[in-house]
Structures are given as structure tokens and as C-alpha cells.
Design brief:
Helix Hairpins, six-stranded mixed sheet, Rossmann fold, 14% strand, alpha/beta, 12 helices, 2 domains, rod-shaped
């Protein structure tokens, strides 16, 4: 409950340097009287200006400063809530706005607008519109509840039922939902970028793997080619070996032929020597008739016989030489043929050596290629680095996807909460529960003021009004006196509901000139009777011109007068 204790103002409207102070919790009922223009209604403007930064009546802010002094306009309101004492000080020229809690100034780092929000939302928990519906009923700029637009009617009810927090929560939720939506859109962009990076990294890994595989395949192809070449060359070597073996078989008689050739040459020499000796003897006998050794005569017959025998021997030896020459020729041919075979064997051996060298070279190349393959297969440095990068990118993408899932779940909860916090959600359910009580109280207060009207509000806060001997009609159809009774009934209802909810429950009620125009004598008596039933915890102030008629009906009276053009309390 808000217990207003006092309001004090100086250099405010018609008040000068000497402050006027009203104790708001001193008496249950207080009558404020005075002539027109003497400052009776200034208390309304002082309260509203101090608490909400604007007056109750339609007055420009600069006009609030006393026109004679022109500066140091200052208003102070003191009140307590739940055992804590508060003081709000607001001024113009110089501008001043201070909030004290238990005599300690609250932090003023926030902008004045935020400072006002702290006062309205965290301390008072009511705004200007609700304050003027629950605390003040005036004849100046006051707009009765039934003349407010439907959205403002709802704001008042929400404050009274202490459910305006749901509207605040809904506004905060909208901002939060927008942040969540932006966060989801941002993280979707991040996820898309992360997926692109993952795909690019996969392409890099695939390219490296394919390049590595291509290198291995290329080397393996060379190895296969070399092995095929080795196999082919080895086959040729095997053929050469067999050919050499075959050729060597053809040269196995070489030594015997050479030996026979030597014997035949030796025999040929001997035969040629014999032929030569015989031919020398034939020449000797043909040239000599006397023996040179014994000087005996050689007979012609003997000489012819000897020559004949020698010629026969020469002929015989020549025949043997011819045979031997034929045999030598055949041996020489055989030896030549063997030498040719040996040359072939030499050529084959050279070819064999060349082939073996080629095989050895190919084997070395195969070994080196297989070593290269093992090295390439074992060298995974670049691939491991890229896979590590891919792993990190995948983790980052999964984390973002998980974050998006959480944000989406949060978004779903926000959507559910938004449905609940809308006007058609929790608030409507609460209002629906309280409407019967509200309507019952309104009609109770109308009956107490002898107004035979059945008045109800629907969920949209539109009126359903029935009057005796009349058809159903609207608030605008009533007379000003009847409207005033309805406005008072609604005002007391809001205060009773606020007291039940302990939301905007307050001790203070100010009624400005309601007895002076709209209420007749009977209505005034009914209202005064109702006012005295509100209890000791209420402090009711009535501003009126009918001071003489009402003077004895109030526990306290405050009179305003003008002295030297300044309003003072006397």
C-alpha cells in the first residue's frame, strides 16, 4: 500500500517563496476551501508534477513557475511503501529530479526518462493515467474512466489488477523475440558460412587425397611397366642362355680339331720335306753322271731307275700331301665354323650381360618406386593438417547448429509466452475472474448513492447499462449527475479492487469540486455517507466552493487565500 504523507510546493503556480505544505495522512477526511483562483486545486498539480513530471490540469510546464519570482520552482512529495520511506523532489529553474529512499539518494546515472521509469515501474507501480483514475476525481482535465478510449481503460484495469507487468513483459518479450530472431538469422548465416568452409575443406582434402592417389597410381603404373619389362627381358635372357648352351655344344670338338690340325700340319711338313728331298735327288741324278763322293760313274740305267723310283715316291708323297691338304682344309673349315660359333657365343654373352644390366636397373627402379609409394603413403602431414582443420570446422558448425537448436527452442518458448502475454491470454483470464467482482462493487456503490442503475462492464470494458423503466442504453445517455454517480462508483470500485490486490492501493483520495455542479443535495449526502464508510486508513480530500454547507461534515478543513498575490494556507 502507498501511504502518501505530505506534499509541499514553493514558487509553483500562485505559490511564492514561502512553501505551502499539506499533511496527507493527518485526518480521514479533509475539506479544502477557498475562492476561485486562490490555489485550492494546486495540490492536484503539485502531486502529479512531482510524481509524473506533468500537472493534473492542462498547463504548460513553463507556466508552472510562479510568474512573479520566475525561478526556484520546487515540489516535494513524501510517502511510504512496505515500510520504506520515499521522497520525490522535482524542480524547474533549476531543473531537479531526485528520489530518496530512507533518506538516501537513489543512483542518478540513468537518464531522467529512465529515472522516471524507476519511479513509476519499480516504486509506485502505477502511471499517470492510473493515478488520476484511482486517486483523483476532478472537474478540470480529469477524464472519467467511461470516457477513456478502450485501450486506456485496459491500462487502468491492468494497473489496478497488478497485471500490467504482463504488458511490460510482453513488450520486453517482443524485443527479446526480435533479438532471438536476429540471433537465429545471424547464426543461420554463420552456419551457412561454416558449411561452405566444411565443403571447401572437404574439397581440399579430396584434392590432396586424389593427388596422392594419382601419384601412387602413376608410380604403380611405372612399377608394373618395369616388372613387365623385367619379365620380358628375363625371358629373353633365358632364350639367350639356351642359345649359348646350344652354341657351346657346337664348340666342344674345338680342341680335338685344333690338335688334328696341328698333327696334319706337322705331317704335311714332313711330306713336303720328303717330296723336296726326292726332288733334290732327282735333280742330282739328272745333273750328275759321276758320284761326287766316290767318283764312280753312274750308269744311265741305274740313274733312270733311281729317278723313276724317286718320281714315284714324289708322286706318292704329293698324292698324300693333296689328301692331307684336303683334310687340313676340312679341319680349317670346321675350326672356322667353331670360331664363328664362339663369336656368336661372345655376342650372346654381351647381350646376356646387357639384358642382366637392364634387369638390375629395372629392379633398382622398382625398389625406388616402391620406396616412393611407401613414403607417399606414410607422409600424411598435409592431409592430417587439413583433416584437423576439417574436424575443427565441423565442431564449430555442430556447435552453431546446437546453438541454433537452443535458440529455436527458446524462440518456440517465446512464441508460447507471447500468446500467453497478449491481451487475449493470461490478462484476459485474470480480468474475466475479476469482472463479476468489479460489476458487483460498482452496482453496490451505485445503490449506496441511491442510483437505481444496473451497470456492468464486459471484457472489452464497454458498458452494459440498464435503468428502471428504461431500455438498455449507454453511459453517454445519462445526466451529468447520474454520470458523476457512475464515475464515483467506478472510482470506489477501483480503490476497493486495488485494496484487495494490494497493487495500487493507497490512502489518498482527492475529489475536486464534485459537489459543486453535478451532484444534487441528495447525491451529496449519499456520497458523504459512502465516503465515511471507506475506513480509517483512507485520507480523503474534497475541494469545494460549498464550504459553508460542508464545513461540519469533515474532520479537518484547509483554507486557501491570496495574500500579496501569493496563495497561502490559513
Amino acid at each position: 500500500m502507498i501511504v502518501f504523507k505530505s506534499v509541499e510546493w514553493s514558487n509553483f503556480l500562485s505559490t511564492g517563496n514561502s512553501p505551502n505544505k499539506v499533511l496527507l495522512d493527518r485526518a480521514p477526511t479533509t475539506l479544502i476551501i477557498g475562492k476561485n483562483g486562490e490555489g485550492k486545486s494546486t495540490i492536484l498539480d503539485a502531486l502529479c508534477f512531482s510524481l509524473f513530471g506533468k500537472p493534473f490540469r492542462n498547463i504548460n510546464k513553463n507556466q508552472l513557475i510562479n510568474s512573479i519570482n520566475g525561478k526556484k520552482c520546487l515540489v516535494t512529495v513524501e510517502f511510504s511503501i512496505s515500510g520504506r520511506d520515499y521522497k520525490v523532489v522535482r524542480g524547474i529553474k533549476p531543473n531537479l529530479f531526485e528520489i530518496y529512499q530512507d533518506d538516501e539518494l537513489l543512483n542518478q546515472d540513468a537518464a531522467s526518462r529512465d529515472y522516471q521509469k524507476i519511479l513509476e515501474q519499480q516504486i509506485l507501480k502505477l502511471n499517470y493515467k492510473t493515478f488520476t483514475q484511482v486517486v483523483i476525481l476532478g472537474s478540470a482535465s480529469f477524464v472519467p474512466f467511461m470516457q477513456l478510449p478502450s485501450n486506456q481503460r485496459r491500462e487502468v484495469i491492468e494497473d489496478i489488477l497488478d497485471i500490467r507487468i504482463f504488458s511490460t513483459m510482453n513488450q520486453l518479450l517482443k524485443a527479446k523475440a526480435l533479438e532471438t530472431k536476429d540471433a537465429i538469422q545471424h547464426i543461420e548465416a554463420v552456419i551457412t558460412q561454416a558449411k561452405t568452409k566444411v565443403e571447401a575443406q572437404n574439397t581440399i582434402i579430396k584434392t590432396i587425397s586424389e593427388a596422392k592417389a594419382d601419384s601412387i597410381r602413376s608410380i604403380q603404373a611405372k612399377v608394373a611397366s618395369s616388372l613387365a619389362e623385367i619379365e620380358r627381358t628375363q625371358s629373353e635372357v633365358d632364350v639367350i642362355v639356351r642359345e649359348i648352351t646350344t652354341l657351346k655344344e657346337q664348340t666342344k670338338d674345338k680342341d680335338k680339331i685344333k690338335e688334328d690340325l696341328e698333327k696334319a700340319n706337322h705331317l704335311q711338313q714332313r711330306l713336303l720335306q720328303k717330296v723336296e728331298t726326292c726332288e733334290n735327288h732327282v735333280g742330282f741324278f739328272g745333273e750328275h753322271d759321276v758320284c761326287p763322293s766316290c767318283d764312280q760313274d753312274i750308269s744311265e740305267q741305274y740313274k733312270q731307275k733311281i729317278i723313276k723310283d724317286l718320281n714315284e715316291k714324289v708322286s706318292e708323297q704329293n698324292s698324300k700331301v693333296d689328301e692331307l691338304n684336303q683334310a687340313l682344309s676340312k679341319l680349317q673349315e670346321k675350326l672356322s665354323a667353331i670360331n664363328e660359333v664362339i663369336q656368336k657365343i661372345t655376342d650372346k654373352n654381351i647381350e646376356f650381360s646387357t639384358k642382366n644390366s637392364s634387369i638390375a636397373l629395372l629392379n633398382r627402379q622398382v625398389a625406388e618406386a616402391e620406396s616412393d609409394i611407401k613414403r607417399i603413403e606414410s607422409d600424411t602431414t598435409n592431409l592430417d593438417e587439413e583433416k584437423t582443420k576439417l574436424k575443427d570446422l565441423a565442431k564449430e558448425a555442430l556447435a552453431k547448429i546446437s546453438e541454433k537448436t537452443q535458440l529455436q527452442e527458446h524462440r518456440n518458448l517465446e512464441e508460447v509466452a507471447s500468446i500467453l502475454l497478449k491481451d487475449t491470454g493470461i490478462k484476459t483470464a485474470i480480468i474475466r475472474e475479476y469482472l463479476p467482482i468489479m460489476n458487483k462493487l460498482i452496482n453496490k456503490y451505485l445503490a449506496a448513492m441511491d442510483a437505481y442503475i444496473h451497470f456492468e462492464l464486459d471484457e472489452a470494458f464497454n458498458e452494459i447499462v440498464k435503468s428502471r423503466y428504461r431500455d438498455e442504453f449507454t453511459y453517454a445517455s445519462f445526466s451529468e449527475g447520474e454520470k458523476m454517480r457512475i464515475d464515483l462508483a467506478i472510482l470506489f470500485t477501483w480503490r476497493q479492487i486495488a485494496k484487495m490486490k494490494n497493487s495500487v492501493n493507497t490512502n489518498l483520495l482527492i475529489l475536486d469540486e464534485i459537489f459543486d455542479s453535478s451532484l444534487d443535495t441528495a447525491g451529496t449526502d449519499y456520497f458523504l455517507n459512502l465516503m465515511h464508510q471507506l475506513g480509517d486508513k483512507s485520507n480523503i480530500f474534497v475541494i469545494s466552493h460549498k464550504g459553508d454547507q460542508l464545513f461540519d461534515k469533515f474532520r479537518s478543513v484547509i483554507r486557501f487565500e491570496k495574500r500579496s498575490d501569493f496563495s497561502v494556507i490559513v
